[in-house]
Amino acid sequence: MTNSLDDLDRRILRELQDDASQSLDEIARKVGSSKTPVWNRVRKLRAAGVITRQTVLLDPEALGLEACFFVLVRTAAHEADWQKRFLHAVRARPEVMEAHRLAGDIDYILKVRVPNARAYDKFYQALISEVSIHNVTALLSMEEIKATTILPLDEGTA
């Protein structure tokens, strides 16, 4: 799909990212088109893998998940078996909102949402019981300044 998004595709995607619960009629009106062409483009974007799924966003604090930790993981092990066990452990933990393998001194960074520090410690203890980790640094986010799921879709995008 690279290099094949036109302006209408980008406008439709912006609307869907903003509120995917909008009706096709609402989206069509906002992007200056009609319902059928919008529906056809949405189907095309899904088939191409540009739109992967629709979901709802929940407020973590409203659900009691007030603590957000960024967990920096350094490992001395880089064998395939260790990585397989680590990835399985991370993917199986619902507290892990994001996980990234990094270049540089830190091997992995995890975004972990829990109710409090005690819950983080339980998460940490469970993780290290499943897989050996050389060094872990946990950073507590004091304030979320910006969080978005909306990707920038300017003229240079796709």
UniProtKB/TrEMBL annotation:
Record key words, sorted: DNA-binding, Transcription, Transcription regulation
HTH asnC-type domain location: 5-66
Record-linked Pfam families: AsnC_trans_reg, HTH_24
Highest taxon listed in the record's lineage: Bacteria
Protein name: Lrp/AsnC family transcriptional regulator
Source species taxonomy: Bacteria, Pseudomonadati, Pseudomonadota, Alphaproteobacteria, Rhodobacterales
